[in-house]
Amino acid sequence: MRSLRKTLLLALLASVAVVLALLHSWPTRAYPTVDVRQRPGPGVEKLLEERLPEPDPSAGSIPYRVKESVAGLLARNGCVCEGESGGVNLPFAQLLFPRVSAHPLHTAFHASELHEMKKRRAKEYLGFQMRSQTPADLLIVAEANNPLQYPTQGLEVRPLKTILIPGLALRDVPRDIYTLNFTASLGTFDVAAEVDGVRVDGDGETHMTLTSRLLPHLNRQLQFITYTNTLYHPSTADTVQLETEGHQALFTIKIRHGITPKLYNTGSNTDKLEYNISALVTIATKTFLRYDKLQDLIDSVRKYYPTVTIVIADDSEHPKTVSGPYIEHYIMPFGKGWFAGRNLAVSQVTTKYVLWVDDDFIFTANTKLEKLVDVLEKTTLDLVGGAVREATGYTATYRQTISIEPGEEEGDCLHMRRGFHHTIQGFPHCVVTDGVINFFLARTDKVQQVGFDPRLARVAHLEFFIDGLGLLHVGSCDDVIVNHATKIKLPWGQSESDKTYAKFRYPSASSDATHTKNGLLYFKNRFQCFTHN
Ligand SMILES: *[C@@H]1O[C@H](CO)[C@@H](O)[C@H](O)[C@H]1NC(C)=O
Ligand SMILES: *[C@@H]1O[C@H](CO)[C@@H](O)[C@H](O)[C@H]1NC(C)=O
């Protein structure tokens, strides 16, 4: 009997404990759900469309002339990839008279899989658009004769924080009673101060109404309106709707975290006239089989920069040891490839700048890294290329401009041309462009941000600049020159490693590597075709 009572008591105690634990862990506040698909708030687009001002019917009868030279520049829906035909068919013709060639990219896939590929690409693209667009990207028109005064752009709030909305006012329109409504979807309104003669309803809610008989009092009150973001959904925007009788205005408040910088401590003596290259720059390269060339590169670097760090990514089948002071040698699985190696090398860099070189380059007295550092220190450029001198004496900068024409569901058109956009003031040897040669100095964090797509194992270089378009501000200077170890070699003069290297590095146009490249341009970057010269 006693033991039964004891058991009951224990059971009772246990259940009380369980209930207490449950109560303790029970959510004490209800969490509103948030749509993290970054779709603009429901109906916002419709709201905006409805608000687009009605075209003035009397304007339809006024004649106009189209200015072809300008109208032709407006992005049309539908892009065109056309190559140039004809021309001379001589050896080196492409070098001397570069012609534009056009490449449809869907040929990377079999006709049988193309339909499926297109559908999948369209689905991924839709997802991308939803992630990358916010209501701040939508068009808002401030109508003429709207008595409402409000901020049209530049309002920003950190997630779950509060701001004062500046610039609000109601213009003089004779009324007995003035009403002003505020509506938002991701946050609430309130007043930071109360003004006599103004009635505030719905403060602390997503819909707030101000009523007053006295316009000056209402305008005074409008100086104290606050917005608080209440749904945690950073990198989006809230659309605020402002309404008075017969008039309506919309504006957006961006909701985002501040951008956290990645700064590099470059040492104490930055105010000195000379740059300390060892503290600022890491040299990164990728090697494959060519240890003799790599050693020549290292020796030439050491002649001018004895303490600069050199990072080497190596995917040779039988890796050899490369050692020495200020050298980091990373061994990768055999044949991982060109871009994977670049990625690995660049990921290990801890200095502010990274210099990319190929393993068969040779530093000379003209390889003045100080000049490239100076350009990046004094401009907003993120990456600056130099020049590469071939054994023949020919010097190349390989400057490319990239432009993308919007297309419809077939994808966009990618156009690449030799050349550049502008020269750079104060740096007469330098220009602004979009793509450069395999010899460049860049801000390390920007290169890491763009990254090198490891799926590009063999033929790749400009793909990095295509991925970087819009993220990288690129320049090119022709007065910083690195030498290229001789490349033009007769087949019978090649060493065994040269031959194996050539087989891996220069595959034929019909090869898998070219298919992979075109396939990525088609699917990943959503292009339909590619023209270049
Ligand atoms: C303001 O909001 C209130 C309550 O939702 C509504 O009754 C009123 O019609 C609105 N006024 C204007 C001018 O939109
Ligand atoms: C340059 O930077 C390196 C690496 O940070 C440092 O060891 C060296 O003392 C610096 N040289 C000068 C002259 O400041």
Automatic annotation (TrEMBL):
Leader sequence residues:
1-21
Q: Report a single Gene Ontology molecular function.
A: acetylgalactosaminyltransferase activity
Residue limits of the Glycosyltransferase 2-like domain? 283-446
Q: Which Pfam families match?
A: Glycos_transf_2
Give the source's domain of life in one word: Eukaryota
- Keyword vocabulary terms for this entry: Disulfide bond, Glycosyltransferase, Golgi apparatus, Membrane, Signal, Signal-anchor, Transferase, Transmembrane, Transmembrane helix
One GO cellular component term: Golgi membrane
Question: Would you kindly state one Gene Ontology biological process term found in this protein's UniProt entry?
Answer: ganglioside biosynthetic process
Protein's cellular compartments: Golgi apparatus membrane
Q: Does the keyword Transmembrane apply?
A: yes
Question: How does the protein's chain sit in the membrane according to the entry?
Answer: Single-pass type II membrane protein
Q: Which SUPFAM superfamilies match?
A: Nucleotide-diphospho-sugar transferases
- Show the PANTHER family listed in the entry: BETA-1,4 N-ACETYLGALACTOSAMINYLTRANSFERASE 1, GLYCO_TRANS_2-LIKE DOMAIN-CONTAINING PROTEIN
Q: How does it assemble?
A: Homodimer; disulfide-linked.
Question: Per the similarity annotation, which family is this?
Answer: Belongs to the glycosyltransferase 2 family.
What is the name listed in the Swiss-Prot or TrEMBL entry for this protein?
Beta-1,4 N-acetylgalactosaminyltransferase
